[in-house]
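Good morning C.,

I know you're traveling, so I'll keep this short. The sequence:
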Amino acid sequence: MKLHGPKDIFKQGSSGSSASSTSTPEPVFVETVETPSSVSQHQAELKEAINATMIREQNLRWIGFGLIICTLLVVLLVSLSACSPAQSQVSIALDYEAGSGYVWTYSENPEGLFEFQHMETLDKSSSDDGDSSKVNAQDIFEFSAINSGDVELNFILARPETGDDIQAQVSYSFSIDSSHNVKLVDSHGTLDVIPEPTISS
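The tokens, ready to paste straight into the viewer:
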């Protein structure tokens, strides 16, 4: 029988602890390294995002510039329309036979939209139209628009002493806007040719 002393026991303990210490696994650290291809892809995506942002900002600038131009054009058109004089003057020339006893008179319906300016008579007896025996004079009526709305001017060629002996009749319908611009809507009458009114500023 072999006896073991303290040295032997210490040796065994030392060898056992040494064996147990070598069996513990050591931690493993894995280092991630980006490959050149992944770096290039990341740079390409970043460049694409920057380009998209720049294009979007450029489009917004162009849209803003277009809105400014449109606004300036609208302001310019409004200013021009406000500065331009209204087409509010109406002149109507009607022929007749001087010395026949017939004269042109007018009426306004409704009243208050036109203001009568004056009437001028022209002598057409010296004209070379070949019909000076009958149509040898012309009355020119001048009106100015003072209110807006729809109005009719009626002209009658009749003897002033009777008023019912009508030789000719002409009517004009006008539309007047808020700026007193006059527009001819309709004209009719008993004359073969209805004279065209002159509308001016």
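Safe travels,
E.
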